[in-house]
Amino acid sequence: MNGPPLATCGALLAATLNASARVAPAQQRDSALVEFLAAARSGTAQFRDPAAALAAGYRPIGPETAAMGQHWLQPALLVEGRLDPAAPQVLAYATVADRRVLVGVAYAIPLGPGQAPPDSPVAQHLWHAHDGTVDEEILADSHGGSGAARRNRVAVLHAWIWVENPAGLFAAENWALPYLRMGIAAPRATSAVAELAAKALALGSGGAPVQPDSTRPPAVARVVSATTDSVIEWRRRRVGVDSLSRAEAEWLAGLWHGLARALRPQEE
Q1: What are the extents of the domains in the chain?
Q2: In whole angstroms, what is the distance from residue 180 CA to residue 210 CA?
Q3: Which of 11, 26, 31, 160 is deepest in the core (most CB within 10 A)?
Q4: Under a CB-based contact definition with an 8 Å cutoff, are residues 154 and 110 in contact?
Q5: Rounded CA separation 251/244 (Å)
Q6: Secondary structure of the chain in HEC code, one letter for each residue
């Protein structure tokens, strides 16, 4: 039986080799990322005990925030500025049932003018570069900036290796944390309702985006206090219930909307 023409075989072989060449870098990148995450988990497992983190030179800085927990910084690692998966510059803890729970890590690398964060094994666009002070950038409630390439800045990469983040492993904020603090299963997928519900949950679980503040007008302070009390009372009645219904999520989101409306004139 005659086979296909030699020219056809050559074309097929060339196409196959070209396809392999395109796939290989992606496979190599995926493999490197898997190894990076494995090293991050094995290297930081010891820090699930906060005492071990203290012994290793990590120190808590700033308050615990709703979607990023409390940052514990190792200053010597920050100065060194090296990307070592097993030795992150920052550990993130959340308070759950009066215990500090390791929820993630962050890598923070100082950058000079014109420098960029690494592009491997984690894609460069997942880093956040900021040009404020170290305290301003590490302690911020969110990391949405990119900094100015012509200035000194700090590149930050969050990695939620100990608590799943519906928004993605490397997203800056993890709105599953308020659910975790409340002992409620977080939604597996991110959504506007789930995030707004998480903000309401944070009022009654610690690290709230909004705290009662004596400097606010009395009427606004009463709304903050009443909304917080509503969340706490609602959770108190849900003994043994570890999941959130759609109706409950919408109710919580509505609470947050009402609070946001009360706060808006103060924030503008």
Answers
A1: 45-174, 183-267
A2: 18
A3: 160
A4: yes
A5: 11
A6: CCCCCHHHHHHHHHHHHHHHHHHHHHHHHHHHHHHHHHHHHHHHHHHHCHHHHHHCCCEEEEEEECCCEEEEECHHHHHHCCCCCCCCCEEEEEEECCEEEEEEEEEEEEECCCCCCCCCCCCHHHCEEECCCHHHHHHCCCCCCCCCCCCCEEEEEEECCCCCCCCCCCCCCCCCHHHHHHCCCCCCCCCHHHHHHHHHHHHCCCCCCCCCCCCCCHHHHHHHHHHHHHHHHHHHHCCCCCCCCHHHHHHHHHHHHHHHHHHHHHHC
- Reading the block at residue 100, the tokens are 């500090």
Q: How far is CA 86 from CA 53, 120, 137, 140, in A?
A: 13, 16, 22, 24
| Residue 18 to residue 20: CA distance in whole angstroms | 5
Spans of the chain below 50 pLDDT: 1, 3, 6, 9, 12-13, 15-17, 19-23, 137-139, 141-142, 144-147, 267-268
Q: Residue with structure tokens 């944070």?
A: 202
Tokens standing for residue 87: 């030795």
The residue to which tokens 């999520």 are assigned = 249
Neighbours of 222 (CB within 10 A): 13
The sheet with strand 153-159 has its strands ordered as 59-65, 69-73, 90-96, 99-111, 153-159, 128-130
Residue with tokens 């500025």: 81
At 108-147, the pLDDT tens digits run 999 998 899 999 999 999 999 876 555 554 445 445 444 4
**What does the block give as tokens for 263?**
């706060």
